[in-house]
Every structure is written in C-alpha cells, then in structure tokens.
Amino acid sequence: MFYQLIEQLRIDTLQQSLPLFGAELTLVVAIVLILLCRMLPVLEKVDSVWLGIVGVIAALIALRPFQPWSIGADGPVAIAMGQLQPTETFTGMLTHDGFAIAIKAILLFFLLLFFLLTKITKLSSRFDSADFVVLALGSILGMFVMSSANHMLMIFMGVEMASVPSYALVALQRRNKKGSEGALKYAVFGAGAAGVMLYGVSLLCGVLNSAHLPTMATRLSELFASEPSGSEVLVLALGGLMLGVGLSFKLSAFPFHFWCPDVFEGASAEVDAFLSIASKTAALALLVRVAVGFTTLPAEPAQVARATPPTIEQVAFVDAEAAPEKALQSSDPLAPARKFVVLLIGVVAVVTCTFGNLAAYAQTNVKRLLAYSTIAHAGYMMMAVPAAIAVAEVDKNSARQAIAYLALYAVIYLFMNLGAFAAIAFVREAVGSEEIKDYAGMLKRGPTLAICLTLILVSLIGLPPLAGFIGKFAIFAAIAQAWNLTSSPFLMFLLIAGGLNTAISLFYYLRIAKVMTIDSESDDTAPMQRPIGIIQNGYLVLVTAPLVLLLFNWDFLNAWLLEAVSHIIT
Amino acid sequence: MNFLTEPVGLSHFLAVGAFLFVTGVVCMATKRNTLGILMGVELVLNGANINFVAFASPYFREDNLGLEGNLLALFVIVLAAAEAAVALAIALNYYNNHSTIDVDKANELKG
Amino acid sequence: MLTPEDSLPFLLGLAVLLPLVSFFVIFLFGKWLEQLGAHIATGAIAAAAMCSLTAAAIWMAQHAPPATHHAHPAESHAVISQSSVHLTALHDGEHDHDHADGLVHGEHDEHADDAHFVPPVYTGHWYSLGRFYGSEVAINYYIDALTIVMFCVVTFIATCIHFYAGGYMHEELHEVTDHEVTLADGTHLKRPGRYHRFFQYLSLFCFSMLGLVIAGNIAMTFVFWELVGACSYFLIGFYVERQSASTAANKAFIVNRVGDFGMLIGLMAIWASLATFNFGDVDRNGDGKLDPHEHGLFSLLRPAGENGLHELRVPDGMVLQGAKERVEEMIVAAQPGTTTADLESQILAQVSLWRDGKAKGDATHYGYWLLVIAGVGIFCGCVGKSAQFPLHVWLPDAMEGPTPVSALVHSATMVAAGVFLVARFYPVFAPEVLLVIACAGCITLLIGGSIAIVATDIKRVLAYSTVSQLGYMMLALGVGGWAAGVMHLVTHAFFKSLLFMCSGSVIHAVHTNEMTEMGGLRKKMPYTAYTMLVGCLAIAGVGVPSALGIPFGFSGYYSKDLMLEQAYLFRSANPLWGSIFFYAATGGAAVTAFYMFRMWYLTFAGEPRDEHRYKHAHESPRVMYVPLVVLAVMAVAIAWPIFGNYGLTNVIEQGRPIGLWSDMASLDGGYVWLHESKSHADEIRTPVGLMAFGAAMTGIFLASAMYLWRVLDPTDARRTFAPVYKFLVHKWWFDEAYDVLFVRPAKVIAACCVWIDKQCIDRLLHGLAWSVRQIARCGEAWVDQGAIDGAINWFAAKTYSTGAALRGMQTGSLRQYVMFIVVGALAMFVLMSFWSYGFAR
Question: Under a CB-based contact definition with an 8 Å cutoff, are residues A467 and A547 in contact?
Fold first, then answer.
C-alpha cells in the first residue's frame, strides 16, 4: 500500500506535474545558476541581470503562452489556448489552466522589461546585482504560485514567497534612511497581514475540513444546503474576512494600504514599478482564484451533485430558455457566498478607489502620488471581480469576459505604470529629485520624456485615444453588462462610483503634466545634472508606444485573454 | 455548557489559538521595539498553527482536516522562520541607519 | 510590350509623369539643388521627348498614314458648282442618289472609303475618381494621331526651351537686383535668385500640357486646363515684385476664368444630358464588348448611322433633355394603367421624331440647341486660353514673364491648348458652332495683325502676331479645315518659339525690349539674326506657289496655303461669309509679312540707333543659340512633303476625327461646310497660292521699302493715318473699353457692396455682438461666476481638503498601521454583518 502511494506520487509528480511546471523550474534553475556564478571567482564577471534576462526568456519559452503544454495520453503536447482543460498538479496543490498561463506570461513579460530598465538606470550594479536579480526572480516565483494556487497552503505560501523577497528588494538600498524605514514598515505590516490571513485560513479550513479549494467550495455548498448553524456562518465570515485582509494587503486595498505610500516613497522607482505591477497583477489573479473558487462549484462535483433525478418542477421548466438557470439559481446553495463576496469586494473596491484618488491630491512627491494612483487603480481593477461573480451563474460568458477584461486592464496597466516609474527613474538620474516641482520645464529639458510621461498620465486617467481608456472602458463595460443581467442596484452604484472617480483623478494626473509642460523652470527647480540619454528616451518611447498603438487593435489581446479564461468558470 | 469543566477538546485548543492570536496582535500594535513586534507576529502565526493542528487531530472530530492541517502547520513554521530572518535583517539595516529600533522614530515617511 | 495598345499608354504616360517627378524633386529639394535643378528639369523633359518620339515611331510602324486625299480636278470643280444640290440631299439626311446628278454620285462613290474611315484610336482607363449613378469620372487616355503629334511637338519645343532657359535665366543663380522695382527708400529690390523655382514651374507647366493632351475625358481636360492656367499665372508673375508682372499674371488668370465659366456651362450641358465625359469608348468591364454606358462622346454624337458616314446626330440624352416639357406632357397624358415600362418605350419611340423635328405639329429640333450650347461653351474656354477675341487682351500683357516662358506659352503650351481642344472636340461641334469659331478667329486675326504693325516692343510685336496666328487657326478650323488648323498649330509652334527665343536672345544682349533702341545688330549677333530671319520667312509663308511649278517653301507656307485654300473653298459654298473670311485671311497674310519684316529690319538692319546699347551687345552663349539653330531647321523643314506618307500632313490627316470625312450643313441649310479634301483641287490651289504669295511679297516689299530702303518714311505714314495709328497704338482701345465696361462697373458695384457691408451689415452685426456680449457679461457675472464657478470651486476645494485630511490618516506610525489591520478587519466584519444581515438567512 505504501509502495502504491509512492508510485502514484511518482507518476503524478514526474509525469504530470513537472512538465507543466516548466516555467517555474526554469526560473529556479536561473536563480541557482546566478547564485552559483557568485561562488566561483571565474564566473564573477558574468552579469547577473543578463543571466536573469536569459532565464526569463527561457521561462517564457517553457511557458508557451500561446500554445501551452497539456498532458495528453502520451506525455505533454502543445495545444491551443482555448482547448486547454484545467489540470490539477502536485496532488491538487496547483492548477494549470489558461488564466494562470496568461498571468504568468504577463509577469514574465514585465520582468523582461523590468530587467532592461534596471540595466538602463544601472540600479542593479549599485548593490549586489546578483542579490537583486535573485530576489526579483524569487518574488516572481511566488507570484507564479499565487496565480495558479489551488490550495490554501499554496495561497499562503505564494503570498509569503512573493512578499518576503520584495521586503528585501525595498531594503536593498542599504544606506538610504528612507529606504530602510520603508522596508521596515513593509516587512512588519506584511508579516502582520500574513499572520491575520493565516489565522483566517485556519478558521476556513477548520470549518470546511479541507484546504483544497474546489473541495472547500463543494463543502461550502453542502454546508449552505444543510442549514448551517449561526456560529459556523460567523466563523466562515470571519475567516473569509481575514483571508481578505491578506489579499487586501497585497492589493493595497483600503484599509490595508497604509504600507503602500511609505514603501513607494522609500524604495527606488524601479522597485516601485515591480511592486505596483507584478505584485498587483499576481494579487489580482489570486483574488480572482479565491473569489471564483469559493463562489462557484468546480466542474466534476457539480455534475455529481446534479446527477440526482430531476424533480418534476425542473422538468416542467425545461422549455423556457431562462427557466433552467432560474431553477438552478433558486436551488443554488452558493448564492449567499456570492452575495457576500460581491458586496465585500465591491465595497472595498469603491472605497479603495475613492481613497486613492482623493489622497493623491495633496501629494508633492511623484512616487507617493503614483503610490496613491496605484491604490486607486487597484480599486478599479477589483471592480471587475464583483461584476464577474455576480453573473457567474446567470451568464458564464459575461463572467469570463469580465475576468478577461481584468487581465486586459492588467496588461495595459503594465505599460502605463512601468512607463511612469521608468520616467521617474530617468528624471532621478538626470535631476536627482523626485519632487513634482522639479519637473517644471521638463518639456524643454527633456522633451521626449515629457511627452511620453504626459501620454502615460493621460492614459492613466483613462482618456481616449490612449490605451488606458480601453482598460477602464472594458471594466465599466463588464460592470454594465453584469448590471444588465442582474439589475442589481449595487452594480449600478459601482459603475457610478467608478465614473466619478475617473473624473476626480483627472486633476492630479494633469497637475504633473501641467508642471512639466506649462510651468517654466524657476530658481528653486533642481537643475539638470546630465541630459536624458537616447537609450532612456528610446526605452520610454518603447513602453509608451503600445499605449498609443493598442487602440488601433486590441482585439488580439482580448481574444487571447478570452481563450485563456475560457475554462475558469464552469 | 461549562467551558472549563468539559474534557479538553477542540474548543479549548481553538481558545488557546485565539488567545495567542489576540496577544500577538496586541503585541504588534503596542510594542515600540521592532523585535517585540516581530515576536507578536510569531505569536499570531503560532495561534493559527495551533488551530491547524487542532483541526487536523482525528481525536476531536470525526470529520477532520487530517494530514493537510499538520502539513500546513509545518510549512508555516518554515515560512515564519524565513520571514523572521528577513525581517530581522531589515530591522538590523534600520538600526544601522537610525541607530534605534524604536518604530515610533520611523515616521519620516508619512502623508 | 511592343503592341501599341500596351506601349503607347505606357510611353506617353511616362512622358506625362517625368516632368511631374522633376517638379516634385525641385519643389522639395530645389534650394539645395541650385543649378542641378535645371538639369533635372531638362533631363526630364528630354526623356519625355524621347518617349514621345518612340511612341511616334511605334505609331507609324503600326499605322501607315493614308495617302493624301487629292480630289481629281474635274470632280472638285463639279462639287463647287453643284454643291447646293448635293447639300440639299445631305440635309435631308437621306442620300437619295436618284435626286443627285451623276457627278455628285461619282464623287460620292470615290470618297466612300474615306467617309467610312475610322481613325485608329487607343482609349483606356487608368484610375477611377468617382462613380455617380453608374457614370464615371476617371483618369483615362485617348491616343490618336493628334495626340502623338502634339506630344512630339510639345516635348521637342519644351526641350529646346529648357536648354535655352538654362542660359537665359543664368543671373537668377545669384542674388538678383531687380532694376525695375524701386523700393520706398529709392534703392532697387534685392532678392535671392529663383533659378530652381523657374524650372520647377516649367516642369509643372509641361506636365499640365502633356496631361491635357493625353486626357481621355473632358473633365480631366478641364483639370489640366486649369493647371496650365495656374502655371501660366506663376510664370507670367515670375518677377512678382514688379507691379506690371503681378498685374499681368492676375489679368491672364482672371480673363481665363471668364472663358472657363463658359467651359463649365458646356461641361454641365454634356454631363447632364449624356452622363459621360469620355471622348472615346472605354471598355470598362473588359468584356471585349461595348455596353451602352461605355460609349464615349464621339460615338454618342456620331454613330455609324445607316450609311456608315458617322454624321452628327443629336444623341438621345440631349433630345430628352431638350424635350423635357414634351415628355412631361406625355406622362401627364398617359392613360391610367400604363406601366412605367410602356411609358418609357412610348417616349423612346418619340425620340427620333423629336430629334428630326418630325413630331406631329412640332417642327422643333429638340436637343439641337443644347448641343450648340455645349459646343459654344467648350469653345468659350478655348477663347480664353487661346486668346481669341474678345478675351485676347491678356496675351500681350503676358510678355511680362521671362522670355523662355513667352516662348513656351505662345507656341506649344498655353495658347496651343485652346486650338488643340477645338481640334479634339471637333466631332462634337455643330455647324453653327463652327461658324462662331470662324467669326471669332477672323476678328482675332485682324485685331492681332493690325496692332502688331505699330507695336515697338519686340515681344509685343510677336505677341500680337501670335494672337493673329491663333485667329488664323481658329478661322481654319471654323471653316472646316481641320487638318489645316492643326497643321498651322504645329508649324506655328516651331517658328513662333524660334522667334520668341531669338527676341529673348536680343533682349539678353541689349537689355531692352524697345526696337527703337536697336538696329544693326546682325553684325553683332549673326546666329540670332539669321535664325530669326528664317522664322520671319516661315511665318510670312514664303514659298514657291504651285502655279510656278514645284510647290516648295518654308513650313508656314504649307500651313498658310492650306488654310487659305479651305477659306476659299468655304467661300465657294457660302459667298458672303466666305468672302469676308477669305479676304481677311489673305489681307492678314500680307500684314503678317509686313510686321514681321518691319521687326526684323528695325532690330537687325540699318544703323544702330543706340550706340551705347549696341556697344555692349554680344552674341548669346552656345546653350542659347544652338536651340535656335535646331528650331530654325525645324521651322524650315517640318512641313516638307519629302517624307512621303510619313510627312506631317499625312500623319495629321490620319488623326482626323471620326465623321469628318463628309460635308456638313447647318440646321437650316444656309451654310455648308465642304469636305477639306476638296480644297486641294488645282482650281483652288492655283489662285489661292498666287494670292498668298502676292500677299506675302507685298508685305515684305512694303516693309523693305519703309524700313530697309527708306523710300517711304514711316513717320510720314504715321502722320497721314494719324487717327488709325492712334487707334492701333491704343490696341483698339480694348483695355480702355473693358475698363469702362467691366472693371469700373465691377469696382463701383464692389464699392456699393463694401458700403452696404460696412454701413448696414457690419453695424447690425456689431450691434448684435454688442448686445450678446452684454447679455453674456450679465450671465457671466451671475450664472457663471456665481453659480457654476462657485460650485466648481467649492467642489475642488472640498476635494482638495478631503484629500489633505485623508493624508492625515497616513501618520507614518507603524504601530498605528498595524492597529488598522485589526481595526479594519473588525470594522469590516461588523459592517458586513449589519449590511447583509440576512445573507445567512
């Protein structure tokens, strides 16, 4: 029996899981190689950033974001994204599906651009570049785990694996007072949030008697179906909230955002880009996983549950088109959980968004301002989740579309924030300041940078004809569609709040643009120490170009993401 | 139902876990010393660990978390150690820059 | 590739585009190219000339020109005597041979082959500009012998002029001091040279003219027509700083607009009634067959007919347009229950009756006058462009441009465009229109010739000579001499460009236009003098008349004789008008010879009248006189009949449009146009040749007597004919008359408009604006500043203060942050519990 167990494990691990784990393995190999290089004096000269870039590219190749691997009858085969059935790997710890692959692809793509950026700003050579690269790669590894988590252990581990290296990343500027303070706050806040989250996880697992997400969902539906006691529901709600604390910390959602502005101000702009893009994307993916996992039944158990002979009522309703869904909905045990999740995430999203936009008003430091902008954008992106959950049982296609839109926003957000933080880094290199007032006269001092940054800011507002508009419009469209299908007033409230927030956000973004383009240099503006080089400008143009070009054709992106999420809500 | 007179069961473990959790949170929120705060974090994590172990025990409930709970607890211990290591290093770095580990002095970044 | 269907459009299209490319290159990079610009432009036009000549060679190889159509003397004689009989038959539209006598019959048989001759034409399609209800406006081409000839002439002469201009405009390479422009501070204007710009315009000019020639539809023609006008505007106003130059450019442009207005009317008439602009048939769908909507103007207007003669027939569209009221009557009177298809077929059945005026109780020839209007309208455009009376006034003023421009404008491009269009559009012109053309040409010829006698500015003499010669061409075309008119267009292009370039050479040498300050220059500049003499002899039409044996002479001799012969032939059928035309033309020939030789004598012969200028005079550089020699050779030999069938006459004859191989008569039969081939009869040739020779010799003799031998004193003559002289010197008071008739009234009306505008409309508007402003001011004070601004400012201030207050939450204290984790989680828990109290039922 023991032998059988081992044999099963061997088959599961070596023949099924590891081939699908190629990208992560590649990253691990890259990490190990970089660390090894440091040990051998001969290889010390090897630039770890380039090694990291090679590793990322190798991981991208192993990931195959357009034709991912799938385990067939005879080993792994590459199939089209839309045909990829979700596969549980490592005895149900992780799941291998299109959504995870899409998120991983976005993360790797970001990491590529991020390494290039650090190469340009020479950030990595200032401290030990190997440390820096290894920490970034390690953090990304954690994010991979987050995006494909299928088990409570993996959720917690993913969050920790992603967070702990990023604490160190923030602290890497060793002689920087602000940096060390930011890192301390980040580490302590993160640890606290992780603790609370873990406690919530323990409660959830205890009540549902499982840590495997689909099993938990099935148990939850059974629980709701069988008249749960008040205390059970209370514990579940508390556990869910505490789990939400951990996620909110990663998303920097109100009221767990406090670390964000301080850390962003303390860390270097490049690390800010990492935190605001990679971390947010992975956190959103995890949010989608958890929210969808707890509110919809997994495919097989649901079928088993429905295998009970249909009642007369159900048969009678078969003719009418909407009837079966209605019948399902009325007998849908997870409806309360869905309502809870929609309400919770929706409220948090609106409050986060509003708070971020309002607090950004009076900022004088660009990085701090962008930190609040990041908070606000996290709010916008979170709004897609309630839209998806609300219609998960009514119209699965709309729900999938909402999640695809969320991922689309994440892609556009990647370019916007990376561009913004890159511009900040370049200005820091040239002017040595990160105060908004020192951006005065930037149109004359560095025209390319000023124009690109202005475009990025306008895109962040979400004004056409830039890509930011697509993202925002897509999210609002998803909410509107959900409202159409459910006519729930709460979704309308979300929509209105989102629109108002966009209007509010206009001013503080445009303030930077105004300082750059209209205000002229004065005596107290920090002088230009060196001009902004052509590589820097080229990088900025490279990152800004998609924001302009995507409007012409973003369908391919949407189509890819739609295929990727085609099996997420079954 | 007298909580104290009952034989030791799941509820008692959960009570201890909750106590540890609350202690840890209070510790985190009140301690000025960074090390104290980190200790609070450990308390919180251990509170959760006690929950896991208790939920996993086959002696308390028919329908239990089983091995998963124990495994979770083990992993958490490891992760807590890693996190503590990094946090301590960061605290040390903070000390190098500020010559103190009083978190109330860390208020340069605000607004 | 060597089939004409493929190669001709390609070669000629290339020839059109090369100057355009050159234009763009110079336009974009002119400043850096400097002298290279001239080389590019010259190279482009020379390459275009090569293309054209190759095209001509291919054409000739494929289409052997017909032998000349010399009618037998007896027949021709008979025709003249019997013309009226024959023409009655023509007019009836039925060639009833029983009614005609035998001679006519024979003549008819003799020319039966010719009458059915369809000239070789290549039409095709390049680019579709737009479709309107199935009718298309496109860029397409129409290539026949006329196109080929025009291409060769235009590109060849333009090439010579480009070379010449390369030398003539040399001073524009550096900074130029314009001595004719005095600034306010008394100094002369200094400006950077505009060498490249000159060639840029020249290139565009050539492109426009070539495009006009190859155009396959009248709309495209109109576009290039206007382009030619615009280019002439640029070039005449090249010395834009000179008041006279800019005025002249404006004049040329505005006067041309008057003509173009008429042309637009003609275009509208054609488009509205026929729904096509194409000259020829273009097989658009490429199925090898011609659908009804693929027919061009020519085949619509001149269908093969029962006898295959391609006689002018008013097309159905025009008849229907003309008989609109009748059609409406029919529709109103239609029996109830008639289907639309029935009604349509009834109306169509009426069309041929309406056309011939045979409808019951209605002898109106519906649609015929629409055709006349279309023709006259198109001719109006030609009047403007070819400087015919009454729009000839712009041409002499156009002398303000640099001389190479004058040479180009007066020979191969601008003014030739009008004559070319008349020739191209010939099948569309009703006989009444031809009469109008002939009249206009006759008047122009007299006006131009008479003024040229007294002009003293060397270029003005030539300009009026051009006016007069254009009148000749129009007259010839108007009296039915299609080949004669085109022939003169070609020969005139050569010797007139030669004459202008010679005059330019003289001006280049002595820096004045006034002939009174020249004289005796032939010793100083022999090349110029003798090439110019060749030009004078050519334009005078000197040659041995056919009565004296072998007819032989300068090129002008052939074309002028052809025209006079046709006028004589016309006279034979229409005594009154014909006599006027013929004697005017013959007298004009004498006048031409007189003023040309007067000019030559004044310039080159006798003693120098201005010693200072004479001393500085010199022969022009080689780049200028070599083109003169080349053109002189062409002016002598271009029309020689020694090339057999491939001579100019025969090639032009080959281009004679469809349907012009038979006689024509006006609607009421009062005027008859006899076929041109009849004019080659010896009965006509001998007297006409002698008369033309006599006229030319008289002119030359008179000029020699007055200016060479000094037997007659010109001042005496001037005194004797003082009123006439005054009349001529003032150019018949045309400018003054136009000033009084049009310019001043226009200015008065404009002044009235200005007054109304300023006093009434402006005041009204100002008042309105003032009141609106007052209202707006009130609105601004109360609504905008008070309510809206207040609200916005309040909102902004609140937003900002909220933001600032929210900043206060971010105290920077870590302990508080951690506290918020707990407080936040608890607060959310409580909130959620209350909010969704019932979520757990």
Answer: yes
CA-closest candidate to residue C444, choices C584, C256, C261: C584
Chains touching chain A, criterion 3+ CB pairs below 8 Å: B, C
Contact C303, C313 (CB under 8 A): yes
- Find out whether C339 and C331 touch, Cβ atoms under 8 Å: no
Domain spans, chain A? 2-300+329-564
Asked whether the predicted pLDDT for residue C204 surpasses 80, the reply is yes
CA dist C371 to A8, A192, A330, C221, C376, Å? Answer: 99, 97, 83, 19, 9
Q: CB distance C810–A504 less than 8 Å?
A: no
Alpha carbons C343 and B74: distance in angstroms, whole number: 100
* C804 reaches A (C-beta below 8 A): yes
Q: Which helix (H) or strand (E) holds A28?
A: helix A22-39
Confidence of residue A125 (pLDDT cuts 50, 70, 90): low
Judged by a CB distance cut-off of 8 A, whether residue C800 touches chain A is yes
Q: What's the confidence (pLDDT) of residue A264?
A: 92
Question: Measured between alpha carbons, how far is B51 from B32 in angstroms, rounded to an integer?
Answer: 28
Choose the mutation target among C814, C815, C837 for the interface with A, i.e. most A CBs under 10 Å: C814
Q: Do A255 and C827 touch (CB under 8 A)?
A: yes
CA dihedral A303, A306, A307, A311 (to 10 degrees): -160
Contacts of C835 in chain A (CB under 8 A): 343
Cβ distance A160 to B90 less than 8 Å, yes or no, reads no
Residue C61's Cα: distance from chain center in Å? 30
CA distance C641 to C543: 13
Which residues of chain B have a CB within 8 Å of the CB of A184? 34, 90-91, 94, 103, 106
Q: Which residue ranges make up each domain of chain C?
A: 1-65+118-183+190-264+276-285+293-314, 316-366, 485-712, 811-840
Q: Please, what CATH class does the domain formed by B10-105 belong to?
A: mainly alpha
ipTM more than 0.90? yes
Tell me what pLDDT residue A508 has: 87
**Chain C residue at shortest CA distance from A191:** C818
Residues A181, B94: C-beta atoms closer than 8 Å: yes
**Side chain identity at A119, as an amino acid letter?**
K
* Bridge partner list, C178: C189
**Whole-number average pLDDT of chain C:** 80
pLDDT of residue A126: 59
Q: What is the pTM of this model?
A: 0.56
CB contact, 8 Å: B91 with chain C? no
- State whether A178 and B37 contact (CB < 8 Å): no
Whether C825 and A362 lie within 8 Å, measured CB to CB: no
Are A29 and A55 spatial neighbours (Cβ–Cβ below 8 Å)? yes
Q: Is B7 on the interface with C (CB under 8 A)?
A: no
Q: Tell me the nearest-neighbour CA distance from A157 into chain B, angstroms.
A: 8
Give the model's confidence band at A302: pLDDT under 50 very low, under 70 low, under 90 confident, else very high.
Answer: very low
Percent of chain C at pLDDT exceeding 90: 2
List the single residue in C with minimal CA-CA distance to B25. Answer: C822
State how far the Cα of C770 lies from the Cα of A128, in Å rounded to an integer: 73
Give the model confidence (pLDDT) of C730-744 as tens digits: 777 788 888 888 888
Q: Measured between beta carbons, which residues in chain A are less than 8 angstroms from residue C833?
A: 237
* Residue of chain C whose Cα is closest to the Cα of B105: C813
Burial class (CB in 10 A: 0-12, 13-18, 19+), C574: buried
**Interface with chain A: mutation pick from B45, B93, B95, B102, highest number of A CBs within 10 Å:** B93
Three-state secondary structure readout of A208-270: HCCCEHHHHHHHHHHHHHCCCCHHHHHHHHHHHHHHHHHHHHHHCCCCCCCHHHHHHHHCCHH
Q: Is B31 on the interface with C (CB under 8 A)?
A: yes
The residues facing C124 across adjacent strands are C141
